[in-house]
Amino acid sequence: MNISASMQVPLYRLAHGRTGDKGNRSNISVIAYHPALWPVIAQQVTAERVAAHFAARAPSHVARHVLPQLQAMNFVLDEVLEGGVNSALNLDTHGKALAFDLLQMQVLLPADLLIHCKGPQELPKFR
């Protein structure tokens, strides 16, 4: 990836997401809007970065399952829902907002791929 002319953008410009849960486990999918964006997502949205992103929720384990033919990936975060729907007292006991939270993660995007992104065309912050 050429990062000489690149910019920081939120992941939601490159992908959309879905969230599911089972007990104290959350599944978060990340799906690229365009095949050209997939290599950037696959390289930068790693299990380690996702674990760091959700450090405040203290997941015991984060696994990444990559589906390159779909330009998608699924993250499984263990022990991240404060006990799950029947045990947690927080407002989002299903963790449905976790995909929105993950899509706030910043990624470094080569400038020539900006045409494939969604959302407002704000002024880029070049490095």
Describe the protein in words:
- The protein has a 4-stranded antiparallel beta sheet with strand order 2-3-5-4.
- The model has no long low-confidence stretch (mean pLDDT 87).
- The chain is an alpha+beta fold and 127 residues long.
- It has 3 helices and 6 strands, in the order E-E-E-H-H-E-E-H-E.
- It is elongated and about 45 Å long.
- 30% of the residues are buried.
- 15% of the residues lie in helices and 31% in strands.
- Residues 9-107 form the AtuA-like ferredoxin-fold domain.
- This is AtuA-like ferredoxin-fold domain-containing protein.
- InterPro entries: AtuA-like_ferredoxin_dom.
- Pfam families: AtuA_ferredoxin.
Outline the secondary-structure elements.
Elements: E1 6-10, E2 15-22, E3 25-32, H1 38-44, H2 47-53, E4 61-67, E5 72-78, H3 98-102, E6 106-110
Antiparallel strand pairs: 1-6, 2-3, 3-5, 4-5
